[in-house]
Each structure stands twice: as C-alpha cells, then as structure tokens.
Amino acid sequence: MFAESIMDSEHTSLRPDHKIRSAAQCIMEKRYRSVPVTDENGRYLGLFGVTCLLKQVIPKAAIIEDGLENLSFVNDTLTDLHQRFTEIADQPISICMNQDAPTVAPDTPLIEALLILYRSKVSLPVVERESGKLLGMITYWGVGEKILAS
Description:
Elements: H1 20-30, E1 34-38, E2 44-49, H2 50-57, H3 60-63, H4 78-88, H5 110-120, E3 124-127, E4 134-138, H6 140-149
Antiparallel strand pairs: 1-2, 3-4
C-alpha cells in the first residue's frame, strides 16, 4: 500500500495572500492542526497551522534558537496574546507558513508515510513529484478512521 491510499483528496487549502485572521478562523472552526497553502495552480507551497499562530503570539525570547526555557517571570495575559494576534491578523499567511514541513509522494510506501506523520506531528501533504501539485493530505484523524474501518 501507498500514501495515496490513506490521503484525503477533499481538503481545504489556502493561498499565501490569505490574511492570518481568516486563516486562523478556518483552522479553529474546522479544528485543523494545519492547512496546506497552494498557489493559483494548486502547487504546494507550505503549511499554515496552529504552530504558526503560536509562534506569532509567544514572546520572541522563547522561540529564538537556544531561547529562554523558563518563562515563569513573563506575566502575559490572554489580553496580551490577543493584542499580539491583532497586530499580525491582517498580514498574509506567507509571513509565517511552514515551508519546510515534510511532504510525501503518492507512491510513498504506507508505513514510511505513517512514520513521517508520526515524527513530524503535522498533517502530511501528498505532493506530485513532477508538478509539485498538492494531491491530498494525510491527517491523524483520517488515518484513525481508515484503520478503525478496516
């Protein structure tokens, strides 16, 4: 079996110029961890998700490489986090989408695709090798449903 056997070809996707506000509403309403970002031709560009949002609102000192690990002295409130969100809400998602997220081809062996999904902890785009076109997504929920149905 291959990755294409467990992918969902009916998926939501966003464009890089979508505003963070509307993209955040999309992932929150549909409870997606991440959503693929494609160009006007359906070519895969990256992922936008919950981690993108968190990166924008968490204090910068915490997310820089070798940043602070103990932030007990930071007294930010939900209001502070909301303020940071509103400061970037009208920016395009291209400023924070993950362009380095792993992808698989449709003919990637099933167990290899599942291992990549497990290790990456994000939904896994299935991308056509030659064209770069997004064909579908492999998600934790989709895999769970298929395993339980078998």
